[in-house]
Backbone:
């Protein structure tokens, strides 16, 4: 447990029970549409959590032995859980250990410490809980106090699970997020087919660039009608540029494979188009920049995407976003949230940029940096230049549903720790600190994503 | 207020009343030449302070409403001040809030906390003070205990205000700094005209490269005669290279618009020429590197330069300065002070370089990093490799005259905090710490800039 | 002394007397082969220590006055030591001061503080000690509790001193490390001659690429027979690429001077060949990346290499190692240890990479970062993502033999300080902390380098 002391503990207690606002993440809407019980402890805690299995893999544990990929299909869940427990020491000092301890103790009320000896016992305890009605997805969602949970959905997704949730008597708010990379990025091998599919879904002729834009507008409107308040883009190299006459390039890309340079140029233009559509339709725009995906080709081939081999690279936000910001960055109603894995850009780029451009907000510490020390570095490096009001609060960004309360709890502890240090340095008093704590726990996220409670 | 504890407080008290040495900044010498009262509280505290108005702009306040630019001319100062006060919460956690609190409480002796309710009352209190003789520029300069204040002046500046100060009975030491970018950088649209003007001012034919160098030497000598002890250069990309025969390039640049590559090459050469002239005439050389200027073209067009849209970018000091240092870096009498906004270069580049090259000194935390956490990171990252003697002390680098005591006070608190931590870790005792504190407060700056008291 | 408090002191005491495992450094094996006394205090503490003389040089002390280079040959050792003592204040706040204080007080039992007044007295005390049998190299090695000491040796080195040590009755374990840069890097002006020499030493025809590889394999086998467990590479720009048919390039490089692009390409391929040979023969591979060597051409010309002018530059480990890792990175038995001087890569690149790839381990803080604050930043930035088990423990990397206990002691204090903070934050308890302390002090290094005690 991330332990707090003195005034930090007081600040934490003031916010620990606030509702959970989760404006960005990767939970599967099907869980809440069907509300079927989670299958077993391994599929709940180990197999979907790339934070967990990447660490075991790094110490020589084969991914198939962890139930991953086609080769892992026959691995028994109990064996997966045992293997995880046998390597529990690897997680000393990591946020995964803090999160999982929280899930076991606070969320599942299991007091036995995890170890190779207790693995079977804990496995049975969890399995028993999962079989109970009050541990099905909707019941957990309600018990967790989730005010809103955003999923992440491709532009071509039918959102049928979101529709099922809307049609159900359950009142949980699960909303989609518009993630159009597959129809914007010509380096996607299926780009041409995806654009054709987009045309079909929207009943729009995407044969020319204007039709393509119209189809994108229609698809955004469909998502907005389904509850979406935000879009999301994941890019390795941050690049935007405005093309005055994109028709010719669009035609070229629709006919043949794009060169990397053409693809980068076109995507760089389309990010600006997306920003301009956000000015029109009010959807908050998110950019997750600087993750190099699938750096391990063998793991990609045998086990697929999102298997721990996405590694951060250095980012130049300043030059990369200049074209976009010079078109729409002065628009106060437009909100663009930036997420970085390159912490050097916190103080050098993001804080000065967010402290100037009306459109910008700095996203919370992302991925590897969603951790006690990562949160401390974030506050240390962004607040003095950006203040608190240019931050976007927290999001858990997880596909591990059970860890959501744990992650928000850890963030709230980090917030309390930071604010207590500021008080100790004399920057402000307890009243300001308590207001900032609530902002950072819930209000800034609601505001940045247009999510009124 | 930046609050100190125990030994840090003791160290601070030992240096808090030392004179202010301000070897680099952007105050207007006209203030001290004419000694007319400051106009009103808004023009004193808000309108000239880009740290302040950028933050309000980032949250949607139009710059014109803050009295900025042609469009802001008709805005009433009291309305500007009210608007500022109404957004005072935006500055929680920023050094601006610490500085302005210091100005109000310590410098102006106003005990009422700033808020939207007290804005008018505080405005009136400040306005009343500004009307008094003891709050005119020279009186404040004397009361602040300023030993020397350096302004920053273009190479073509006539220095008439400095001459007026010299001719006056007042004894305040206000000295110019030679900032020749406009006559060195061919990417300046007025470069050719500026060089012609330089020739006129110095009575020198700048028709060939030798004449151009001679004109620069004469202009430096004029500045030195007026009290200058340092030059300054502001560059985005740090690049130096030596050209054996620059005549041809010079002729080309004097005849036509420079390509970006030609301009970078020529300026890269001229930085070395400037360094060599510093070896001759003893002027300390400053380089402020890595700020990308005017990234917001709309704000530049409507409101001009220095409006909060200058954003740091990554810098390569090692390769960028290699050509310069290999010509003059082994000269102990030459002093070159480097300022960075890319904190990753503190430990990686600047400290190892300053810990080797006799010519180098590391400038204090600059701009966004002149803040409590910024100062802590600076000491944490430079001292172990560069020691203390390769640092250049402090400079406030401000155009906000009233904030000078506040900024030096905050630096001195940061110094005391750092040194007390070093003592607690057992690195040295109270006697060494007290000596280092005085060095960092005044002596290193005097030494680096050749400013004997 | 780096002072500890409370639980940190307890943790430190549990590991302070463990044996010293020194798997990477630059001590001269001749010292232990001949076991002749060290010449004098200046040659022991000042002249070989580039951490020390670079600092004096940075403040204007000529290198020749410090006994360095041909010009320094006639300088008297006592004068060198006096000059060093007269500049002792320059080291306030640096690890060099902590190390040297430790050497004087703990290792040499000299209680008089060093100063310009005590320089002669201390010089005499050290000189007297060095004349005694119990201060000869082997006796010190034994007294220091060194379990194993690895030297660094060129591929063409005959290892005659290692043979002499092996043939002697002394039981100290001094092992070579295989550093083949001179026969891998075509930008080395002696590359062609070095490869020819390699052929001679191994009795292998290096006229074609296969012969060249065979010669390298034989040389590795010879080193392994002499006790080597690791290789080492020092490169400025981290770059690897696989060439399917390298014969043509090899022939070109053997006939003429390489272009920089050819050299980079070939060396990038050879790093992968080396990694593949490590998979075969089990030698741990080390890469020290991102140091730009000999940036001061005047110092290089007059005083030679390793004179304080090697300066770190930014590194891209992700793209740079992608080709190598995609060939052998999934091999758990292969160990590749990465050392960086670009601390921005700790959290952004190295920790995520080591937390995924089975082959990777993160080396300890290197060079300028082997310091209290450097160690703290290291743990702060690597542990949350990489855990502890993907670290390679400590190595002192020194050519200053006397400083080895001091450096390991400082590391162990840094370990204890870090772990005590983790305990205070509630991440784990005293039992886990004590186990991690021992791992970090000795066990991880033994494991990463295959050095069973």
Residues:
């Amino acid at each position: 447990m991330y332990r707090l002391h003195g005034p930090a503990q007081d600040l934490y207690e003031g916010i620990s029970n606030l509702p959970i606002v989760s404006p960005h993440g990767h939970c599967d809407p099907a869980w809440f549409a069907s509300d079927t019980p989670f299958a077993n402890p391994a599929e709940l805690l180990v197999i979907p959590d790339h934070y967990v299995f990447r660490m075991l893999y790094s110490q020589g544990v084969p991914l198939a032995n962890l139930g991953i990929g086609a080769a892992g299909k026959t691995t028994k869940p109990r064996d997966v859980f045992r293997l995880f427990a046998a390597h529990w020491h690897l997680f000393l000092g990591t946020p995964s250990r803090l999160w999982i301890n929280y899930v076991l103790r606070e969320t599942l009320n299991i007091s036995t410490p995890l170890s190779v000896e207790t693995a079977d016992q804990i496995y049975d305890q969890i399995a028993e809980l999962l079989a109970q009605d009050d541990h099905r997805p909707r019941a957990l969602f309600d018990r967790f106090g989730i005010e809103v949970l955003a999923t992440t959905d491709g532009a071509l997704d039918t959102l049928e699970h979101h529709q099922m949730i809307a049609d159900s008597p359950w009142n949980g708010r699960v909303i989609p997020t518009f993630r159009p990379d597959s129809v914007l990025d010509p380096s996607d091998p299926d780009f041409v087919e995806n654009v054709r599919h987009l045309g079909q879904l929207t009943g729009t002729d995407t044969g020319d660039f204007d039709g393509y834009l119209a189809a994108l507008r229609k698809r955004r409107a469909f998502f907005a009608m389904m509850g979406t308040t935000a879009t999301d883009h994941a890019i390795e190299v941050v690049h935007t540029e405005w093309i005055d006459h994109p028709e010719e390039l669009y035609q070229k890309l629709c006919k043949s494979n794009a060169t990397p340079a053409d693809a980068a140029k076109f995507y760089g233009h389309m990010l600006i188009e997306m920003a301009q559509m956000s000015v029109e339709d009010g959807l908050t725009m998110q950019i997750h920049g600087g993750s190099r995906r699938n750096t391990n080709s063998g793991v990609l081939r045998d086990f697929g995407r999102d298997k721990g081999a996405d590694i951060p690279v250095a980012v130049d936000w300043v030059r990369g976003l200049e074209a976009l910001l010079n078109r729409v960055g002065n628009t106060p109603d437009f909100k663009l949230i930036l997420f970085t894995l390159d912490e050097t850009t916190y103080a050098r780029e993001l804080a000065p940029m967010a402290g100037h451009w009306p459109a910008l907000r700095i996203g919370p510490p992302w991925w590897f940096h969603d951790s006690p020390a990562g949160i401390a570095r974030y506050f240390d490096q962004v607040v003095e230049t950006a203040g608190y009001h240019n931050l976007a609060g927290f999001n858990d960004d997880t596909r591990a549903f059970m860890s959501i309360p744990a992650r928000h709890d850890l963030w709230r502890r980090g917030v309390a720790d930071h604010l207590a240090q500021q008080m100790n340095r004399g920057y402000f008093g307890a009243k300001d600190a308590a207001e900032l704590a609530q902002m950072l726990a819930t209000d800034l996220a609601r505001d940045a994503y247009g999510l009124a409670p």
Summary: The longest strand of chain B covers residues 230-235. The two ends of chain B are 29 Å apart (CA to CA). The longest helix of chain B spans residues 260-281. The mean pLDDT of chain B is 97.
